[in-house]
Amino acid sequence: MCARNSIYTNPKPCKHLADYKLRHGFNTYDSIPNCLKTTPNGRTRVAKHTTKIPRCSFCDRYQGRLYFCLMCSSLWCPTHILLHTQSEKGHEVAIDMDRSELYCCLCCDQVYDPDFDKVVVCNQVKDLPGGSKSKTNRFEASGERSSKRKRLDSGIGLDLKKSKMLVSMRDRRAKSCYPLGLRGLNNLGSTCFMNSVLQALLHAPPLRNYFLNDRHNSVQCRKRSGEKLCLLCDIDAISSAMFSGDRTPYTPAHFLYSWWQHSSNLASYEEQDAHEFFISVLDGIHEKESKIRNSGKDDGDCQCIAHRAFSGLLRSDVTCISCGFTSTTYDPCVDISLNMDTSNLSSSNANKPIKPDEKTSASTLSGCLNLFTRAERLGSDQKLHCQNCQELRDSSKQLSIRRLPLVLCLHIKRVEHSLVRKISRKINQYMQFPFSLDMTPYLSSSIVRSKFGNRIFTFEYDNSNSSAAYEIFAVIAHSGMLESGHYVTYLRLKNQWYKCDDAWISEVDEGIVRASQCYMLFYVQKLLYNKANEDSSFVRISPRRDPFESTAGCS
């Protein structure tokens, strides 16, 4: 599960950017802070020109997105930026004015450079309300932070007692028509992977209730442990900020720094994989709560919030082909990784985006789940020792779900590896997925009964205490190429979909969600989803209330 088969590995360096830095060094980067401006809502933009409306140097029109040439400081629209590059040698690198991201005009793609991102992040943090212009108050990548350093007013130093107060949706409608809890997250330099996962996690009903009901008290935690950095405390601060009613985009800089300390192997300004980040955060929550509880239980019996919400149990049956002896093992899991069902597509079409309205075979979530639970014969090089035959035998393996979690996370594998060509590519294939999901066909009880009937193992495989009906509440989608791209999250609140694209929140219809290249799907048990919708008008405070109390019989 922790193997690095992610969409994002280390992105390949852009040759044109490397040539530019070789010729000019960091001279241009030194002047970039003078061109950057952080707006009141937390967005960092290029504000070089003083004209009221920036326009393209060629067509004199404003066509939405404009690019700022690093060499000559001219502005170009997406249509004419390539024309400028081809006519002026050495003008290959530009800055996206709206997002403050580097763009290679010849590669026609965003490019990553840690030196550039450090400049943008430092400028963004120090320009936020409450930030200092001094060097000591910049975002520090060295790993040392002053204990006397002022916290950002954007949420890092929120008064938790005030943020936990009862907040009514009715009182907030004058400010925004969006439901409480919808708030953008500022990009700190290639951190869309982090923002997309945080949006999904903080809107998962068990985790949302856990933090809003003060089940993790940050003040007591710091007094008890004496640690300045705590992943749980930082998630608690973000949760309080998200549900405070403030619509200004929040900057999760302190959380990013804490996560770097927990996952030092991933601590960099490079883009990471959203699924790998998701697993890392759950591991961090589990590790912290285990220290607090002094618990040494296995993941399957762990009572930390991460495992109480996401932990399920997989069953693996390995059957000897010769004698039929079956060996059964159980493994805890916090998500299920599914292969795309590309059996109905040719190899050429598998890598092309397929629109929902096209009349062609498409992968479906049910097909992926059927593929996951289908018995497969192991190869001759995978012979296993049969306890009955007492020798190596050919065998078959079948997976099923023994116990379902409260929150079901389905990870769609969109990377295909070729052992012959020794290359990897992203699968851009469209996949159909339902908003209401019945997991009954994939339970161990259903799989066993389909093979042997209802007359045997009736009680051993009974799942009557667990609900198999789920409702979708979040979708993390990835767009772009294998080496680069962008993550966004779609949230479903009261049957209305909202797109969370870093700092930007917008209302979208379900057709947009269905047409997205889904990478992670988040479902919650239907009873809990309905209960969450009923309670979404208010954020209640109950001293140390158990966030699972309202879902008795579902866990």
Automatic annotation (TrEMBL):
Reaction(s) this enzyme catalyzes, per UniProt: Thiol-dependent hydrolysis of ester, thioester, amide, peptide and isopeptide bonds formed by the C-terminal Gly of ubiquitin (a 76-residue protein attached to proteins as an intracellular targeting signal)
Annotated signal peptide: none
EC number: 3.4.19.12
Pfam families reported in the protein's UniProt record: UCH, zf-UBP
GO cellular component: nucleus; SAGA-type complex
Domain USP: 183-526
Residue ranges of every copy of the UBP-type domain listed in the record: 12-132
GO terms of molecular function: cysteine-type deubiquitinase activity; zinc ion binding
Family: Belongs to the peptidase C19 family.
Localization terms from the record: Nucleus
Lineage: Eukaryota, Viridiplantae, Streptophyta, Embryophyta, Tracheophyta
One annotated GO biological process: protein deubiquitination
InterPro entries cross-referenced by the UniProt entry: Papain-like_cys_pep_sf, Peptidase_C19_UCH, Ub_carboxyl-term_hydrolase, USP, USP_CS, Znf_RING/FYVE/PHD, Znf_UBP
Protein name (Swiss-Prot/TrEMBL): ubiquitinyl hydrolase 1
Species of the source: Gossypium davidsonii
Principal location: nucleus
Keyword annotations: Hydrolase, Metal-binding, Nucleus, Protease, Thiol protease, Ubl conjugation pathway, Zinc, Zinc-finger
